[in-house]
Amino acid sequence: MGCNREEKPLPSNHNVRRTNKADFQMHVKEKVAGRILKNWKDSPPGTCWMAHTWSLPHLLNNRLHEDLFHLSRIHGPLLSLKLDLKPRVLILSPKMARKTLKQQEYVFSSRTIMEAIQVITYDTASVIFSAKAFEAFGPVHKQQVHGLLKQLYLASMMKNSVHIADLGFVASGKISLKHTFWELMQILGSVNVTDLIPVFKPFDLQGLKRRILKIFWRLYAFYENIIKERLEERKIRIGNIGKERLDLLDVLLDYRSDRDDELKSLSRKNIKGMLAEMFTGTDTTSSTFEWGMAEIQRKPDAYKKIVMELDQVVGKDRFVEESDISNLPYLQAAVKEVFWLHPAVPLLVPRSTNEACEVSGYHIPKGCIVLVNVLGMARDPSVWEDPCESKPERFLGSSIDVKGHEFNLIPFGSGKRSCIGLPLVHRMDTFT
Predict the structure, then answer these.
(1) Which residues carry a binding-site annotation?
(2) Which residue from 124, 176, 305, 413 has the fewest beta carbons nearer than 10 Å?
(3) What SS3 class is residue 46?
(4) Quick one: how far is CA 369 from the chain centroid?
(5) Which of 73-77, 233-237, 332-336, 342-346 ranks highest by mean pLDDT?
(6) In the UniProt record, does the keyword Transport occur (predicted)?
């Protein structure tokens, strides 16, 4: 996507002549489909993807965010997409993201849930916690992060290679169904035609629904077993409840019984939904770790600066604490650079509009699906200098953070619909 990495380069001339039969056929398909699926009145400029869906393998074998990036370079930072009868728009600029996600936050606050996520998370039975409730996880979070750091330290002392994703499973609760989760990650990382074109939902063309249901029942039995086992353990150590919390599950079971906040009303289904969200988030966390380590290996100078800063602030006799982070500006810049270069979710979870509105003179109807291409925003040379190079220095002295306040960098989204794991994920990535 404009980078000399795995992304496809931008075409030097957007008005490429169609010189062969295949190109001519695609042109005809696009014209015919465009007649069938007309845009709504005063819609943003755009293209008809129905021509591409007539050849589904083409759509499924390409990285969707890259194709959308190329389209946006032709049509601008706000464009309409014709996939089926449901209206869709794509956002690909910080300015346009601010106009929609912040200035009209209420209108763009509904979320469209992918079919696989809806099944695995018990129809999104998880809950969103306040900052106060997150504090309940503090001691357990610190314990788990320190455990992860010890694993990394011991492996480095023994000169062993480390598979970060496997350590992520240890930090997430010593999961015994690793292969099941990897199969789940593979499905979640696939382009599901049903999510793009809902009219295909009854047919399950790729067989993903059948596979995800099998995984759901395996995980259902797993969650039931660990909850039952933990409840039995708690009966044995009843006198120590509240003093010895082993992990997130202990916190949830503990606090729902004696707190007068949102934790108090947690049901068994809510707890399973939270466990499912935590485990499905393991892949994005581990991939961020791995990209971070890869970028450090590619940039020896950046690695030396990080080590020097850690030696000066933390020393070599203890682990990094959360209180140290504010005194580690270069490390913070390096973490932001990883989120910027390699966002775990290149296309944010789709949103939909609660009501009709106007954006930059264009009409956006109620129920419109909204896609935000954060990776494309990071590759825009009009916003970033050297958008394909890893340069942590670009964030030194900058007020830009990853919390969704500055729209130049929103790997976790923005506003009420940002990633619920943001407080925990950001801390863990910085520690590691």
Answers:
(1) 419
(2) 176
(3) strand
(4) 18
(5) 332-336
(6) no
Annotated binding site for heme: 419
**Which sign does the torsion angle of CA 374, 379, 383, 384 carry?**
positive
Q: Does 257 or 19 have the greater pLDDT score?
A: 257
Using CA atoms, how far apart are residues 356 and 215, in angstroms rounded to an integer? 38
CA distance 188 to 208: 9
Pairwise CA distance, residues 128 & 423, whole Å:
12
Buried b (16+ CB within 10 A) or exposed e, 153-176: eeeeeeeeeeebbebbbebbbebe
Gyration radius of the chain over CA positions: 23
Strands 351-352 and 110-111: antiparallel
Phi, psi of 78 (to 5 degrees): -135, 115
| Residues paired with 347 in a beta bridge | 373
DSSP string, 67-90: HHHHHHHHH-SEEEEESSSS-EEE
Query: Which residues are paired to 319 by β-bridges?
Result: none
Strands 88-91 and 110-111: unpaired
Considering only residues 31 and 181, tell me which one the structure prediction assigns the higher pLDDT.
181
> What DSSP character marks residue 48?
E
For tokens 């969650």, the residue is 223
Report residue 76: phi and psi, to 5°.
Answer: 110, 180
Q: Which two tokens stand for residue 275?
A: 């466990």
User: Do the beta carbons of residue 148 and residue 167 sit within 8 Å?
Assistant: yes
Three-class secondary structure of residue 129 per DSSP: coil
Query: Which residues are bridge partners to 91 per DSSP?
Result: 78, 372
Nearest Cα residue to 181 out of 212, 205, 227, 226 = 212
Q: What is the largest CA-CA distance in the chain?
A: 79
Tokens of 179: 């292969």
Rounded to two decimals, what is the model's pTM?
0.74
Domains along the chain with CATH numbers: 120-429 (1.10.630.10)
